[in-house]
Amino acid sequence: MAERHHQKDQTDELADQGRRTFLKGSAAMIGAAALGACSTNQQGTPHEGFTPPAPAPATHNKHEVKPGQLDDYYGFWSGGQSGEIRILGVPSMRELKRIPVFNRDSATGWGGTDFSKDLLGNRMSGDTHHVHLSYENGTYDGRYVYVNDKAGARLARVRIATMEVDKIVDIPNSQGTHGIFPQRHKTGYVMCNSEFRTPQVNDGRDLDTPANYAAMHTAIDGETMEVKWQVMVEGNMDLAATDYKGLYSFATCYNSEGADTLEGMMAADRDRLYVFNIPEIEKAVQAGNTIKVGDSDVPVVDARGENSAYVLRVPVPKSPHGVNIDPTGNYAVASGKLSPTVTVVDINKLADAFAGKIQPRDCVVAEPEVGLGPLHTCFDDRGNAYTSIFIDSVITKWNIQKAIAQYSDASVNPIVQKLDVHYQVGHTNASMSETKEADGKWLIALCKFSKDRFLNVGMLHPENDQLVDISGERMHLVHDGPTYSEPHDCVVVRKDLIHPLKVQDRKDARFAIYEAWAKEDGVDLLTTNKMIRKGKNFVRVYMTSVAPAFFLKKFTVKKGDRVQVILTNLDNVEDLSHGFCMSNHDVNFIVNPQDTQSYTFTADKAGVYWYYCPWFCHALHLEMRGRMLVEG
Ligand code: CUK
Ligand code: CUA
Question: Residue ranges of region Disordered (predicted)?
């Protein structure tokens, strides 16, 4: 550790000129080419002689959470192409849990159990980018986590009580569901953006006519998870945001040209920030001023073309990506990937712009220069903003009021600090930043590349989710967090707002299906251990367990039978999960304390098959097993 004293403090953003030069190589390429190249090859390894910066000095290491201590925050991470959500403790950055969402998960049986199969069908992959929690009065109400599936145009919800997915909804007339954001004044709509423009109707009648394609801004009821309405616009939509009052939602549009090629998408000087006027849209829906598109019954407000009572188009520099609302609710900050600036929109001016009293562009009150390739912005409780800068690989801290002052007085410098991150940062988020209770303690930089930061584990490197202390005037990098593919965004939530169950309360909506089967069969889930033949080729096997035993030791079926196992874990002890694995049948699922799960499979081979408990539950865990006898 002594050598640490000889190394540079990497919190000095200008510390490593060699690294700076190395990154400039990419920045010097034309913007879009550089952005694209980062996902291909040219920055794969640092140049010869490159010295990685040292960790922050010990004085800043207050992120350490000692053995036996708990974190102060829950971090909810999207899992990208893994299709899942992860929970990390912050500031320790310890991964605490993975919640399977759109993926099949061997450990829990998600994607195989009857309940999850009903939600997923046969689709076992997804692409989660954005996780956001349900709100009440501008802060988290601790009930739900929402996450998008870009790959399959779906929205999923996790119930925080159980930390399991309870609903998944398909979004009609949509592809590339990317930005989502719940309303913040209460659990109202979750707004979802289609990133990809498609023919509307998309049934083959209209194919290679991109000029006619359109995209949907969709409102889903965060409580019922019903799709309530859609607004159709001409441009694509990337990230989403909502205000704090329930008046507006926002979407960045990086392809106002409506092009289908990269060159075409970069043709115009400016793109736009869409602002949706939710009360006006609701009025139109109620009055029936809507259309139906394709075979969906969801009412669609057609707002293509000019500004209207429904949609305002605020011109912003080219190719915006992120849009984020500051904790006061006064400002929307949009970032243009191909402009070194962020655009600050005064939300309080939007009403005048909708009324035609001012131009949409008059709502812009600042446009500070923050670096090459700005993507996303988060906030502290002291009026500062932190923007992730992809090409420069820095987090730029800037002051909002100073940026507004600079807009009319060029001598004001709003930039507070630029901090190197490693490398190619996508999203950044700060503790409670998406609420009015932003507290300015910790910032996460979700870096797409880790290059030299970890042991070489082969071609696919971990991502690097870095922890930054933002409690002081200057930012300090304090931790490197390797993560598996590929978090895009995270939210960091005070722990007093999150209260999951430790033992199932048996009130989960999922229980309705098991109770219905038990009623139909005249049995009690808590006491029944027997097989019931339901038809020529279908049996139900009711089973209970207490460590270390299943209370059904064997059952006999015929080759070809569909077998539905309904297993109830009677243990009432925190952390005492059992599970059920049927050897050689691709059946493996968990049953948490006081929970019931069911799984249906085909007994397609005659013979004897042992089922066993895969979760290490007891000294005699290995003895926790039984036999399925399959008559040929
Ligand atoms: S994200 Cu989805 S492409 Cu910047 Cu929110 Cu990574
Ligand atoms: Cu139950 Cu192992």
Answer: 41-63
